[in-house]
Known about the structure:
Layout: H1 3-21, E1 28-38, E2 43-52, E3 69-83, E4 86-100, E5 105-118, E6 122-136, E7 139-149, H2 158-161, E8 165-175, E9 180-191, E10 196-207, E11 214-226, E12 239-251, E13 257-269, E14 274-285, E15 293-305, E16 308-322
Antiparallel strand pairs: 1-2, 1-16, 2-3, 3-4, 4-5, 5-6, 6-7, 7-8, 8-9, 9-10, 10-11, 11-12, 12-13, 13-14, 14-15, 15-16
Amino acid sequence: MNVGMMIFKFIFCSLLFISSAFADELGHLSLSASTAQTSDDLSLKTYGLEVRSNRRNLVYPYENSKSEAWDLGARHSTSTGSSEGLHFSHSFTEGFVGKKLNNRWYLEVGSGVSNLESDQDNDSFSTFSTKLEYSFEQLYFRSRYGHEDTILDMRYPRAISSYLKSHKFENTLLWTPGKYRAKYLIKKENLSDGNSLTYQDLELKYNLSRNSYWILAGFGFEKYSNSKQSSGYWTPEKFISYGPRFEITGPAIKSSYFHLALNLNRFKDENEDEGNGYYLNVGIQSAERNENHFKIGYERVKSNQGRDYWSVGRPYLNYNYFW
């Protein structure tokens, strides 16, 4: 058993006691499993487990959430996969503490251990993350920093061969005036191979909801750039994508709910080469979000650019238990 898993088991047992004896809100246990397969022969299976003393969502608060609370928790994930003939296994364990200062502000800090074993080498390093959230009426803002690996970001094979690490800065702004929903995300990363990248995503959607169905339709724009090109993963100097976006959520059979998100994209790179593609995420959830529930779904990304073609399919399963 690795050190990370031992740490997680200790934190997990401690949280069960703390949640039962002292927590003001329901504890939250989350389980996840997924398997991804790309058209360029990357395969990745991932299993995740997270436990926290209080369930937490500042944008859409859970029922009976308190205005102030301390959150304690831990995350653990294990992954196995292969890329271009290179086989690997990866584990990540993180403990975190959060403080809900009031109904507007939330702060969380975490630290963990990342372990990688591959055909070439074995290595590990310490991770760190911090997150600040603000929510008031129609406005939500989140700022996050993390020193992390890139194993789950699909930057293969460099992510494995050189154990690629990242200093990641990410800011998200969500504004919901009336029936409109505007969201802006900007992410900057300084990678351990000397590359730095910037990713931006802007979307504007209009609420067409009727009865108990949540329906959003609008338009999105993405821009992705890298300071240098690398042979170990996709590093365009400039990549622009835009197109219509749709989102639908509503009741299905009995107490279940379904979810569908679809982005249709037109894009071009620094060479003015154009292409098209789409992002699809469809799933069904067994109950509403305040109750114990599982969700099964499928995520797919596909792109065509001239003779170049790339796709990834990822079936997934999530389970949420509250106590």
